[in-house]
């Protein structure tokens, strides 16, 4: 909605991939499994995280574990089969009693989606897209802001955002587990406290014009007359595949350039999508097209932002720019959905409650 309204989006290249999604289902199993003593294995039965993070091992940050898993798979040490490439999460050594007491939800998810009792054998897992660190640029009050051409910032009157849709940005390039709930509680409360004052100072909203109403209805009805296009489910599958191949755990300029071309072609296919159901009530195909339209806007923002940031930082890992570049990229990225242009926004390092501290290299 914000992108369609022309609101700038911040740090849209920063997507977190959770290491342990159930292969073939995408349902996440908590990293609490590894906190309780579970660990990852490759096809050779090797506890491979000891090679990538000798100290933290399986408790390294999510981006490190996800990249390690994908490296194992890409170098031929992953498992294969009907579920596709994956690794294994071993929990059975903890014992059935401990698993049922400490990880009952994981046991239920594994039995339901992997058809495996974790007390009997390892769970097939694969890094799965989980959380968006980027979103609408906001103040700590939840007030959405925009960057003007002269570098000044301006409030977007009447627009507030909190949670995963907002980019405050307390999570930086790599959210830590559990901090999403804290984000909601802290900034949700802050937004509530500021909303009343903001509403009092904001002029009464104008009634929608006939032109605006017609534009909204046209978006709902734009697929009605298409007769020769594809079903939305087919287009959605190709969009997912494009993002997985070109913009997931590992990225490179060549792959992303090819992916962007594919996205532009998929966008044209979406415009010509066909509804096999033209009913006006409970039409799930129309809903799927509308959802796909939203996914398309998000995918394009991600593609442009990921290609723009020529470094590796947190969850954004580029094989053609392996190192973090604080001299040029200790900043936010801003995507303009109207022009599809990119720009930078400085990080405010002004001391508030304590002195700022420089970023250091992460080691595990």
From TrEMBL:
One Gene Ontology MF term: succinate dehydrogenase (quinone) activity
Listed Pfam families: FAD_binding_2, Succ_DH_flav_C
One GO location term (cellular component): plasma membrane
Residue numbers annotated as active site: 62 (proton acceptor)
Catalysed reactions, as listed in the record: a quinone + succinate = fumarate + a quinol
Location in the cell: Cell inner membrane
Keyword terms, alphabetized: Cell inner membrane, Cell membrane, Electron transport, FAD, Flavoprotein, Membrane, Oxidoreductase, Transport
InterPro entries according to UniProt: FAD-dep_OxRdtase_2_FAD-bd (IPR003953), FAD/NAD-bd_sf (IPR036188), Fum_R/Succ_DH_flav-like_C_sf (IPR037099), Fum_Rdtase/Succ_DH_flav-like_C (IPR015939), SdhA/FrdA/AprA (IPR030664), Succ_DH/fumarate_Rdtase_cat_sf (IPR027477)
Any Gene Ontology biological process: anaerobic respiration
Domain FAD-dependent oxidoreductase 2 FAD-binding: start-end pairs: 1-181
Involved pathway(s): Carbohydrate metabolism; tricarboxylic acid cycle; fumarate from succinate (bacterial route): step 1/1
Membrane topology: Peripheral membrane protein
Principal subcellular localization: membrane
Residue ranges occupied by any Fumarate reductase/succinate dehydrogenase flavoprotein-like C-terminal domain in the UniProt entry: 236-364
E.C. designation(s): 1.3.5.1
Cofactor: FAD
Protein task: Two distinct, membrane-bound, FAD-containing enzymes are responsible for the catalysis of fumarate and succinate interconversion; the fumarate reductase is used in anaerobic growth, and the succinate dehydrogenase is used in aerobic growth.
Family per similarity comment: Belongs to the FAD-dependent oxidoreductase 2 family. FRD/SDH subfamily.
Protein name: Succinate dehydrogenase flavoprotein subunit
């Amino acid at each position: 909605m914000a992108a369609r309204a022309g609101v700038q989006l911040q740090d849209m290249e920063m997507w977190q991939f959770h290491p342990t999604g159930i292969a073939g289902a995408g349902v996440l199993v908590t990293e609490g499994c590894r906190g309780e003593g579970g660990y990852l294995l490759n096809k050779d039965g090797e506890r491979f995280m000891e090679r990538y993070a000798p100290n933290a091992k399986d408790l390294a940050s999510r981006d490190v574990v996800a990249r390690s898993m994908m490296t194992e798979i890409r170098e031929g040490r992953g498992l294969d089969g009907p579920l596709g490439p994956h690794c294994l999460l071993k929990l059975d050594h903890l014992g059935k009693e401990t698993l049922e007491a400490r990880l009952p939800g994981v046991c239920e998810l594994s039995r339901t989606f992997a058809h495996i009792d974790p007390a009997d054998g390892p769970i097939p897992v694969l890094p799965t897209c989980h959380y968006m660190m980027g979103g609408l640029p906001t103040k700590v009050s939840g007030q959405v802001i925009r960057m003007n051409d002269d570098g000044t910032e301006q409030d977007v009157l009447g627009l507030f955002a909190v949670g995963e849709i907002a980019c405050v940005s307390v999570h930086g390039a790599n959210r830590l587990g559990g901090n999403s709930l804290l984000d909601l509680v802290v900034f949700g409360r802050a937004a509530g406290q500021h909303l009343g004052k903001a509403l009092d100072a904001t002029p009464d909203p104008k009634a929608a014009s006939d032109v605006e109403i017609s534009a909204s209805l046209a978006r709902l009805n734009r697929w009605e007359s298409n007769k020769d296009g594809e079903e939305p489910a087919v287009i959605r599958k190709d969009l997912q595949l494009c993002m997985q191949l070109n913009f997931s755990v590992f990225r490179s300029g060549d792959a992303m350039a090819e992916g962007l071309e594919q996205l532009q072609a998929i966008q044209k296919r979406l415009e010509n999508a066909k509804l096999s159901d033209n009913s006006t009530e409970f039409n799930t195909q129309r809903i799927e097209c509308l959802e796909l339209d939203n996914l398309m806007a998000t995918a394009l923002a991600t593609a442009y932002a990921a290609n723009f940031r020529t470094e590796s930082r947190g969850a954004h890992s580029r094989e053609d720019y392996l190192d973090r570049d604080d001299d040029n990229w200790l900043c936010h990225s801003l995507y303009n959905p109207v022009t599809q242009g990119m720009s930078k926004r400085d990080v405010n390092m002004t001391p508030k409650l304590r002195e700022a501290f420089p970023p250091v290299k992460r080691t595990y």
